[in-house]
Amino acid sequence: MSDVEEAITQAHHDEWARVVAALTRRFGDLDIAEEAAAEAFTTAVERWPADGVPPNPGAWLTTTAVRKAIDRIRRESKRDVKHKEAQMVYDNTPPEPPGAIDDDRLRLIFTCCHPALAMQTRVALTLRMVGGLTVPEIARAFLVQETAMGQRITRAKAKIKAARIPYRMPSAEDLPARVSGVLAVLFLVFNEGYLASGPDTDPVRHDLTTEAIRLTRLIRALLPEDGEVAGLLALMLLIEARRTARISASGELVALDEQDRGAWDAELIAEGHRLVRERLAAAAAGVAPGRYQILAAINAVHTSARDIRDTDWSQVLALYDQLVHLDPSPIIALNRAIAVAELDGPEVALAIVDRLTEALAGYHAYHATRADLLRRLGRSQESRAAYDKAIELAGNTAETAYLTRRRDQLG
User: Fold this and answer.
1) How many CA atoms lie within 13 A of 393 on its CB side?
2) Which of 129, 159, 232, 385 could bond to 292 as cystine, CB 3.0-4.6 Å?
3) In this structure, is the dihedral angle defined by the CA atoms of residues 259, 263, 264 and 266, taken in order, positive or negative?
C-alpha cells in the first residue's frame, strides 16, 4: 500500500464520523450527509495521489463533502422543497440542554438510536453512519443478508427524516431510557473493532475500539452513576488491554491461553479493575448488576490471572450462571460452555454446545468451539469437519489463520 493509500485509509478511519456528523448538523439529512461524505472520500482517492495529502485531511474532507452536498441539493428538481426540508429540521432543533457535551458524533449516535427506531435498526444505522462500516460488514455482524441490511438502513434514514427526529442531545430526564440503546450500539462497534468481520479489513480495527471507548467515556461523563455505562467501559478497557497480544507477527489470532500476558496494557487493566470494584461495591449495597457489569467481572477474573492455569474458572462459571438469567441468549450459553469444559470436562461441555446447533448453525464461533471440544476428546475426524465449517464462516483473516493451523495440526 502506498503512503497516499495509507493516508486515505487512515483518514476514513479517523474522519468518517466527524464528516458525517458535521454534515448532518448542517443539512439535517442523513442521506445527504452519508452520500456527500462518500463522494468526498472518492474525490480524495482521485486527487490526493496527484495533489498530495492535505495538511488537515479532516478539514479538506469536510469542506469537500459540504460542496458535494450543496451541489446535490441544487441538482434536485425540487431543490426549493429540499432546501426548506433541510432548513426546517435544522432550524427547529431545540437548544441543547444545559451542560450537554459538545460533540457532534455523540449527537449523531443519539439521533441514530432514537426510540422511534427498532433496536436492531438503531445499531445498524449507527454502525453505518458513525462507525463507517459497510453494509456487508454490518450484515455479517448481524448474521443477515446484505440486501435485507441495506433495506433496513435505508428505511431507518427515511423514518428519521419523515418523523423529523432532531439532531441533538436528549434532555436529562430522557437520558437513562435512551442510553441502553446507545450502549448496545457502542458494544457492537467495539466488537467489530476487536475482531473485524470482513476479510478485506485489518483483523483488529483499533480505530473502532478506540472510538467506542472514547464515546463510552463521554456517556459516562453524562451518567456517572449509571452502572451499565461503567460496566461497559470496564469491559471494553479489559478487552482492549489484550489487543497487542492477540495477533501474532505473522497475522494469526493468538488465543487467550497462548497470549503473552506481559504484553497486556497494565494501565487499562488497572482502570478496568477499578471500575469493576466500584460496581461490586454497589452490588454489595443491593444494586443488582446488569449484563455489561457481569461481562466486565468475567474479564476481570481473566485479567487477574498471571497464567491461564491460575484462572478461577469456578468464579467465571458462577458469573455466567448469573448472566444467563439476564441474557439467556445462545451466544452466552456457548461462552458458558467453555467455562464448563474447564471445570467438568469437554464431554459435558460438548453436550451443552450440541443443544445450540439450531440457533447457532451459521455462527463461526459455535463451530470453532465444537471443533476444540471434539479435538480434546480425541474425535479428530469430527473435529476437522467442525474446523472446516468454522473456517468457511469466519470472515476475520487472523481468526481464519488460527483455525486453519489448529485444523492442520490434527494430521
Assistant:
1) 18
2) 232
3) positive
Question: What distance in Å separates the CA atoms of residue 325 and residue 17, rounded to the nearest whole number?
Answer: 36
The reported pTM is 0.76
CATH class of 312-411: mainly alpha
Give the residue range(s) of CATH 1.25.40.10 domains in the chain: 312-411
Cα dist from 198 to 98, 202, 242, 365, whole Å: 41, 8, 21, 15
Query: How is residue 156 written as a grid cell?
Result: 431507518
Bin 98: left if φ > 0, else alpha if -120 < ψ < 50, else beta: beta
d(CA 249, CA 22): 38
The answer to whether the CB of 186 falls within 8 A of the CB of 385 is no
Length of the chain, in residues? 411
Give the model confidence (pLDDT) of 27-70 as tens digits. Answer: 888 999 999 999 999 999 999 999 999 999 999 999 999 999 99
Digit-coded pLDDT (tens) for 197-247: 766 667 877 878 988 898 899 889 878 889 999 999 999 999 999 999 999
